């Protein structure tokens, strides 16, 4: 008896010790199990002949539960079978009315609506890749994005007709087939598509049409506003589409769940994580045209949503609304996304109840991702031995002034210690290749870092500064150099500069982001020099900025300087400007703030500054 007690005591002491020493052991094990399962599954898909793509998965779901709702949009509901038939019609219409063949790329310029799903699936059925454009881009940006994916067909939403007309001559000049999702078009060269789809047959398409698609064929092109210049198209091979689609599985979503997608489908989060993930799980999607703070929880209640996806600001907006009695009346049990800050995370839990928040990290162009499977508040992921073995990565010392990695006397990079901030780089290997950007070899090269630890080795430069703490949790710290994040979007400073420079009174521009207490990321600011004897025209600047830049990219503050500081290598110095921020008491240069109400920039006052800091004015 006594021995038994001693043994039991001993065992529980050992267990307690293990728990104390390795508090996440169980989570680590669970993650290992899922990570291995997902990897194995992808390997199996790869080996299947013919290849098993997300479309094949969709067709399996259709066979399994044809009547299950796939997409709920407002008051309308479309079953898996409905969407399948509708995508057959799209594919048949395009076969008749265009010269598309397997391997071609079609560009979608389309907001969130159910037809996004069936047009995309229709293209899959023809063996075509889709490039999905941000619906806010216009003119030069639009043309640039269209042409960099070598696309020959554009399909645009009816409400984007004006934007398409603006670039129509340039498209037609290069023999692009331009379709508008309307029943009639009054413009020459702009073809209507809706009635062609309506009239087309819903007969299934032969798999022969896509017989040459492999796991390495491009499936999607998704744009990132990267570190330099115009947006860049990240190539998503069929295999990488799977990597995105299997994320919900890693996050613990089951086939009984219902997912809410208010994020744009032209982003990785909406299309890969959300829509493709839903197909993989075989679940119902509640699709929303646009994120709305006031309707968010009502939508979730009405449609029995159990999973939401977010970008950081969304959760903050939800927490900023006045409290309501029914805040906890909902079925949401999992929130997957990235960019939630620790304080917001805590208020979500406090206010909306027990929601499992699964924060992850993964640049859509990158080749490395982390997932915070433990639910550690504030972290973006956790170092896991097995994960690191399969996809090697490390944090290296980075010089933020010179904006490059620090190298030792042998020219090699230096790994940082735990608790120190460093640049995330991941090894480019066969398991973790880097597909790069479509039509942009130069930018693809720029993201590669060579001779990191050994001569001839090759790493992907994420451009993100992270920190790993002593408990192996990973935290996001900042973005390097030419981009910053605002409202969940990457803002490319060079792109904003190029646009500001087009104003004739402007001589030179340095765009950067400044921190505002209580906000995730940085808000845009520009230091500007003026041409001789010219003045800063507030209304013209406002009009210019609003017509050429999406809201999140417009510089909120403009600071007029007599000259811009540059480095010895002719790079603009941003660090000091970022430190100065936008406090008029600290800045003696003329300082302007963008005022939407006045349709103008207006001089920044101390009062205005105080209101922003105190949260009275929301940005
Ligand atoms: C467009 O098509 C016309 C007629 O088929 C051809 O002559 C022309 O070279 C094409 N232009 C381009 C840019 O491909
Ligand atoms: C890196 O890319 C490969 C192939 O494109 C993909 O299989 C892998 O999942 C990617 N890694 C991550 C972490 O996204
Ligand atoms: C500013 O620009 C607008 C139109 O671009 C013009 O009408 C106005 O006169 C300008 N103001 C000044 C002070 O130059
Ligand atoms: C802009 O509008 C605010 C009120 O919204 C007003 O106080 C301010 O004077 C206006 N500025 C200019 C330059 O008209």
Summarize the model shown:
By secondary structure, the protein is α/β, with parallel strands linked by helices. It is built from 20 helices and 30 strands. The radius of gyration is 26 Å and the shape is globular.
Commentary on this structure:
With 619 residues, this protein is an alpha/beta fold. Among the domains are: 80-238, 3-Layer(aba) Sandwich (Rossmann fold); 385-466, Luciferase, domain 3 (Roll), CATH 2.30.38; 485-614, GMP Synthetase, Chain A, domain 3. It is 34% helix and 24% strand. The protein has 20 helices and 30 strands. Strand 14 (356-362) and strand 15 form a beta hairpin. The mean pLDDT is 87. The structure holds 2-acetamido-2-deoxy-beta-D-glucopyranose (4 copies). The site of one 2-acetamido-2-deoxy-beta-D-glucopyranose has 3 residues, from helix 18.
Number of discrete helical segments: 20
Number of strands: 30
- Radius of gyration from the CA trace? 26 Å
Given as residue ranges, the uncertain stretches (5+ residues, pLDDT < 50) are none
Major sheet size, sense and barrel closure: 8 strands, mixed
Ligands bound to this protein structure: 2-acetamido-2-deoxy-beta-D-glucopyranose
Residue share in β-strands: 15-25%
Name of the CATH first level of the domain at 80-238: Alpha Beta
The share of residues in helices is 25-40%
Read across the widest sheet, the strand sequence of neighbours is 2-1-11-10-12-13-14-15
Query: What structural category do the secondary elements indicate?
Result: alpha/beta
Mean pLDDT: 87
CATH architecture of the domain at 80-238: 3-Layer(aba) Sandwich
Shape annotation? globular
- Terminal CA distance reads 69 Å
- The CATH topology of the domain at 80-238 corresponds to Rossmann fold
Domain AMP-binding enzyme C-terminal: 495-571
Subcellular location: Cell membrane
GO biological process, one term: long-chain fatty acid import into cell
Pfam family, one: AMP-binding
